[in-house]
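It is worth pausing here to work through a concrete case rather than discussing structure prediction in the abstract. The textbook approach is simple: state the sequence, then state the predicted structure, then interpret. We follow exactly that order.
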Amino acid sequence: MLVLLFIGSGCAALIYEIVWFQLLSLIIGSSAVSLGVLLGTFMGGMCLGSLFFSRFVSRRQHPLRVYAMLELAVGAFGLLVLWLLPYAGGLYFALALHGTTDLLVRGLFCALCLLPPTLVMGATLPAIARWVETTPEGVAWLGFFYGGNIAGAVLGCLLAGFYLLRVHDMSFATYAAVGIDVAVALASLALARATTYRSADADAPRASVFLIAPGAWPVYVTTALSGATALAAEAVWTRLLSLLLGATTYTFSLILAAFLVGLGIGSSVGSAISRNLKNPRIALGVCQLLLTASIAWAAYSMTRQLPYWPVSPGLAISPSYTFQIDLVRCLWAVLPAACLWGASFPLALAAVGRGAEDPARLVGTVYAANTVGGIIGALCGSLLIIAWLGTQTSQRILIAVAALSAIVVLAPAAAAAAQKFTLSRRGLIWSTVTAIAAVLFIRSVPPVPPLLVGYGRWFATRLDNANDFIYVGEGMTASVAVSQLPNGVLNYHNAGKVQASSEPQDMRLQRMLGHLTTLLPPHPGSVLVIGCGAGVTAGAVSIDPALQSETIAEIEPLVPKVVSKYFGAHNFNVVTNPKVHIEIDDARHFILTTKQKFDAVTSDPLDPWVKGAATLYTKEFFDVVKDHLNPGGVVTLFVQLYESSPEAVKSEIATFFQAFPNGVVFGNTNNGGGYDLVLVGQNGPMRIDVDDIEKRLASPQYETVARSLREIGVNSATELFATFAGNEPMLRPWLADAQINHDRNLRLQFLAGLGLNRYDQGPIYSQMLQFRRYPDGLFVGSPETLAQLRMAIAGGE
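Step two, the predicted structure:
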């Protein structure tokens, strides 16, 4: 019964974690630093809760009743975070700064929001531990409780990622988790009423939570190192698998689920075998030794096996089939190591816990050691070692640390004296074997193939392009690459696909986006560019003579460096332009915390199916952008039609129109068919003076702008505005069933994730054009100019 309760508890906990991370990311941003602060705070609270529970909660209390109260408290905190976070966000925005100083503010804000509920979460396992005795059988049950908690976490991960948040929203998901917590609490209270509890030493003095039994320190060190390698490996492997599978919210759910499945299997097996082991320390050390091989296996699988599986992404007739093969790929790579990490926890409990006076203190200290290591591993893995050393060296370091954790516990395992470290002959043999194995496995870790960074899941279909890459880099938040085709075309790769290029259709979109941003507002003195990419859009903005200052908000530090070196000829060397300032930050966080206002904002972020990108397409974000526009200011937005679905495109356009009812859509075609769109909105009534813009383009000051437009086949203002594809009144019937993307549902990331690998851009654009007609009142100019424009729009494809 308690295992079943822990399944429910784990399910609710993962739902909370996913919801809280999304809610807090909307406030402090989705950068690697922000997510690192979030994860560190979350795990830190769990660690403190497990560590100090035995110190502050009396053993007189019935463990099942205490557990029930903790579950009710978690549910109450879940509701408080949901209801009060928007108000707390206002406090953060009032205090937030930019740069390193803001890290302290972010950390304090996350601690304020997450420490109370995570302290309670961390105390649940120690609380229930007092219901068992520290016999081999009882300690094994502690491992089964831990395994049940992880099994529930798998369920919660999949339930939240594939149903609760996809179909409903964060509020509904929170209420579902609260309902589970209440059910678990009521069941636990019923069990408490039906059972008796007596603590023989309830009045015994409480030992210090930091007191470690003599000779037990190697187990605690190994447990901490095991937690560090597990969380660091998860960060590294998530980077590699998200390249291979596509960085959608569904992919992240599958990766986490596969990892948790392994932990659950391992903890169950470890618990089952621990009750019959004479020396659990040796089994714990062997687990760490086998981890050196399992980490090497994962590294080899992700770079030398899985990319070559002959599975074309375009063959699947439904996303569900893609998810099935993706789950198999995740399990194939991470399951062996995850099982061993899962087995390490119950084996560590068995190694130090038999005969312990207080089971809660036993569980709390072992869990705390594991979590402290996990915090260090997660932060180092996500913030430091990948960006500094790359995934290959990172995995080599993980193998070395796993070997070290094995040596720490195996070297003194066979020693005669348990009170101090004594290296026996058997311990020396174990250490030597471990060191040799680690060296061999470290040498076997292959580098990440450039083709995987460039084309992701299309790897097997792009083997002929393997020699085209002139740059590959692994940054803090993304892996990026630049390739050059034999015809001289440059491609900028991010998230496992081409994000920008010097191909004519891409150059046309990027230049249109940039020039519309500065040609339409009355005084484009200051402009914010969201997303640097290849820098072509930002470069088009930078050459406008009226521009005085330009700010580029880019989340990945590598991108401006790559752009400045390789795309300078196409982006007018925008990164070195003295008018341009680059802000390395999540764009949403930057605009929410800046006091600056702009004459124009242009947004060209990553594809909306990339996890986190949908926060830049919400109604609330567009409202914030509007608030940061000066009167008459203009906002432009890139919307892709390829690798998308009608539902996702409708959501993007309809959400934009809710914030900018005067919005206009311009189309960029490729070979006569739909390709992508530029959405334009204005802070005030929108009137486009075609003659005035034509006059400016004909002036000597605007010669660079006019030449830039000619290079993409646009020879006049009339030709530029002939790409008109519709506005809100025209497209209203087509958008009738559109789902609006709000902060609380982030509907777009789920819709766009289902459209990955689809190429329906032609039909989508054709559907839109069925509603297009000449927009009376939008364009102003001479009768001759407007007549030409009317004919051009009517004759457009």
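Step three, interpretation. The longest strand covers residues 629-640. The mean pLDDT is 88.
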